């Protein structure tokens, strides 16, 4: 299964894939393109990725989430390409027997992937300028 | 040796990739030295850059073989 690519992320499909009678809760985190950043008006964000490592990193976050929390499933999808304001860039779906585990695991998954997946935002502003955002140094960088 | 750039590094170098005339196997650290010589603006970025080959993050002491492509990854901002 591809964790990252240009296709629109289908939340309903992810819920269908993870459906389980043992789950008493699911949590969906969705990241969307916001129309402002540091006081500037954002018109779009171009997401790019180094896909071989991004695939591996996102699969690892899923596996770590399953190992560290009492959850039944964790699936992550990240989108690339030029996204307009309001469009979904990333989705995490977690199912668990109980809501506390689902919330905690979902938070862990999104917080971790933002540090470990080689993905970059390039924001485009309403004045036509574009800039790569400063981000998190990857594990192993500089060594 | 072929080197590919991602994120802001594409702007720093002005290209998605460059080919260096170096004889493999060569240490990644040596490739980075060559790159900073050719592209001085890269130097300030390198302490926060991860080096990868395929889906593996590499140490700068690792050797790059003839059939491998070095990938330079700046700090990430996904999500």
UniProtKB/TrEMBL annotation, chain A:
Pathway: Cofactor biosynthesis; molybdopterin biosynthesis. Signal peptide: none annotated. The keyword Amino-acid biosynthesis does not apply. GO terms for molecular function: molybdopterin synthase activity. Keywords: Molybdenum cofactor biosynthesis. The keyword Kinase does not apply. One of its GO terms (biological process) is Mo-molybdopterin cofactor biosynthetic process. It is an enzyme of class 2 (transferase). InterPro entries: MoaE_sf, Mopterin_biosynth_MoaE. It catalyses: 2 [molybdopterin-synthase sulfur-carrier protein]-C-terminal-Gly-aminoethanethioate + cyclic pyranopterin phosphate + H2O = molybdopterin + 2 [molybdopterin-synthase sulfur-carrier protein]-C-terminal Gly-Gly + 2 H(+). It comes from the Bacteria. Its EC number is 2.8.1.12. Heterotetramer of 2 MoaD subunits and 2 MoaE subunits. Also stable as homodimer. The enzyme changes between these two forms during catalysis. Belongs to the MoaE family. This is Molybdopterin synthase catalytic subunit. It comes from Spiribacter salilacus. The lineage of its organism: Bacteria, Pseudomonadati, Pseudomonadota, Gammaproteobacteria, Chromatiales.
TrEMBL record, chain B:
Coiled coil: none annotated. CDD domains: Ubl_MoaD. InterPro entries: Beta-grasp_dom_sf (IPR012675), Mopterin_synth/thiamin_S_b (IPR016155), ThiS/MoaD-like (IPR003749). This is MoaD/ThiS family protein. It comes from Spiribacter salilacus. The lineage of its organism: Bacteria, Pseudomonadati, Pseudomonadota, Gammaproteobacteria, Chromatiales.
């Amino acid at each position: 299964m591809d964790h990252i690519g240009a296709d629109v992320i289908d939340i309903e499909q992810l819920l269908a894939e993870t459906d389980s009678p043992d789950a008493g809760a699911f949590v969906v985190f969705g990241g969307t393109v916001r129309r402002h950043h540091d006081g500037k008006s954002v018109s779009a964000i171009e997401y790019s990725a180094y896909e071989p490592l991004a695939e591996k990193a996102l699969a690892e976050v899923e596996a770590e989430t399953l190992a560290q929390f009492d959850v039944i499933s964790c699936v992550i999808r990240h989108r690339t390409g030029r996204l307009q304001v309001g469009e979904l860039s990333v989705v995490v779906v977690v199912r668990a027997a109980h809501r506390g585990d689902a919330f905690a695991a979902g938070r862990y998954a999104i917080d971790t992937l933002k540090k470990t997946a080689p993905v970059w935002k390039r924001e485009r502003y309403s004045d036509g300028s574009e800039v790569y955002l400063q981000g998190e140094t990857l594990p192993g960088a500089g060594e | 040796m072929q080197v590919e750039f991602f994120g802001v590094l594409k702007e720093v170098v002005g290209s998605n990739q460059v080919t260096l005339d170096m004889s493999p196997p060569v240490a990644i650290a040596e490739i980075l030295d060559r790159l900073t010589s050719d592209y001085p603006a890269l130097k300030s970025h390198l302490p926060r850059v991860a080096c990868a080959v395929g889906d593996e993050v590499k140490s700068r002491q690792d050797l790059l073989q003839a059939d491998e492509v070095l990938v330079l990854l700046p700090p990430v901002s996904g999500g």
